[in-house]
Each structure stands twice: as structure tokens, then as C-alpha cells.
């Protein structure tokens, strides 16, 4: 039987904020499981059941830290920060799974800049949590060897997230990490420096940070001679648009092109709406019927807002 765990005051306040914004039913936090003795960001799951959403903390090493982490992710989405969607398929289920995991992890690196800052502000991260997080890194990765190995991508991803997590506290753990993972750390630090050059103060800033994370990661992959992930095409990131952009014609803001990838769950080639200003997949759509130049001309002439709402495409209004 696992010990009785209570949400601390900071988490109770967070849960109340989430429930004030949550549209259907309520959000609940439950604790089940053992103590692994380390902290990682995969120690909780979410389940939607009748009556609401359940956040289930599945490891009890740092239950209040883990609960707050999940609640803050949810709070950011409820407050209109960009989401990601997977509407395309490479035609290989296993490859799609890998792509979705990697894409989500990179998206979370960007989101953690806000999540972790909030956790620190609420006193939810202390030295004990930092030590347990370091144990989590060492549990996830094997030290770098002399030969070229298959863990390069995972190391880069893990250490990039670690730099976001430690922030100004990194110096204390730098030697321990550098000793085991020098190459990955050097690459992660280069990416991190470019990511934190601009602050995140709005959903628009966050979208820009997500896209930058995707592109800097791909640049590093290619420098190492590894395949790029191309999340700018594979992953749909909800667009953040000003009132003015919503009134413009579709042609002025987006370019629609025929992807080599399929619509998820079908055998049809997908059409992807790429944002002209940043080259990011912002929506996918089925082919217009009939699939003629005239039909596309008509689509392109539509105001952005009318098009997005007609096709039930989620978007965020830039304040």
C-alpha cells in the first residue's frame, strides 16, 4: 500500500487555477506507485474519464514536484499556449511513433522554459529535486564511449532539457554531466544559448521558440551526419495570428502544398498549410473537391479567419 500523499499548498493553488479554466468536468490528481529514487519527466500520465481529467503521478520519488510539472503544462494549454498535433504519416507506424516521441520531447524543451521557471518561483524545486534529476539523467543515458553509438540523439535531447531545468543552477552539476557526456553537453549548450537569447512572454514567443528548437536540433543532427527530423513539416504547431493577419487572404499568410506524407489514418497524400513567415506546418487539410486550380484559387482568396473556422483548425489570437 503506498503512503498517503497530499498535494502541498502551491499545488492546491495550481489545481484551483487549472479547474477554474478547465472546460468540461474537473481535473483531479492521483498518486500511485513506488519510489524509483530519481526524477524524470515521464513519471506521470493523464487519463480522461467521465467527469474529468485525471493526472496520475506514477512515481512517488518527488510527487509534489511531478504533480506541479503536469499541472503547469496543462495550465499553459488552457491559457492559450501553442499545441502540437500529428496529422501526417510517413507510412510506417514505428517511424511515426518515434517521430511523435521526439517531436513532443523537443516541444516540451521549449515549454519547460516557462514550466520550470514557474516551479522555481513557487519553491517546488530544491537541491534534493536537482540531485534526483541528475540521477534521472544518469538512469536514462549511458556515458559516451570512443566509438560512434546510437545514443547521440537521446543524449542531446536529454541534456538540452537538463540545461532548461537547471538554468542558473547548472554550474553546480556541470562537472558531473561533462565527465560522462562531454560531446552531447557541448552541442546542447550551443543550442541552449541560442534558445534563451529571447525571453518567452507570450504564446507568440513560445511558438517561435518551439520552431527554433526544432530547427537547431536538426542542424546539430546534420552536423553529426544523422538524419534531420523535419518537424517543421511533420508536426503541426497551432498558429498564433494577429487580428490583422486573420483578416488577410489565405495566400498572404500561408502556402498550401502537396506533401509526400499521407493524411494520418488514410492512404491519401496530405495538403499542408505552411506559414510563410516561418516555414512551419500550421494545419493540414484534405484535397479540395474538385482538386482543380480554380478550387485552390478560391481557397487562397478566402480570409484567413473564415478558412480556419470553416475547417475547424485551432488557432491562437495574438494579443
Largest sheet: 4 strands, antiparallel
Number of domains: 3
Order of helices and strands: HEEEHEEHHHHHHHEEHHEEEHHE
Estimated helix fraction = 40-55%
Low-confidence stretches: none
The CA-CA distance between the termini, in Å, is 49 Å
Quote the beta fraction.
15-25%
What sort of overall outline do the alpha carbons produce when their principal axes are compared?
globular
What value does the Rg take, in angstroms?
Answer: 21 Å
Number of helices: 13
| Class per helix and strand makeup | alpha+beta
Mean pLDDT: 95
Can you list the strand order of the major beta sheet? 5-8-9-10
**Total strands:** 11
Short structural description:
The protein is α+β, with helices and mostly antiparallel strands and 319 residues long.
Describe the 3D structure.
The protein is an alpha+beta fold and 319 residues long. It has 3 domains: 1-79; 96-231, no CATH class; 238-317, no CATH class. Helices cover 50% and strands 17% of the residues. α4 packs antiparallel against α5 and α6 (171-180) crosses α7 (182-195). The longest helix is centred in the middle third of the chain and has 29 residues, at 93-121. It comes from Limosilactobacillus panis.
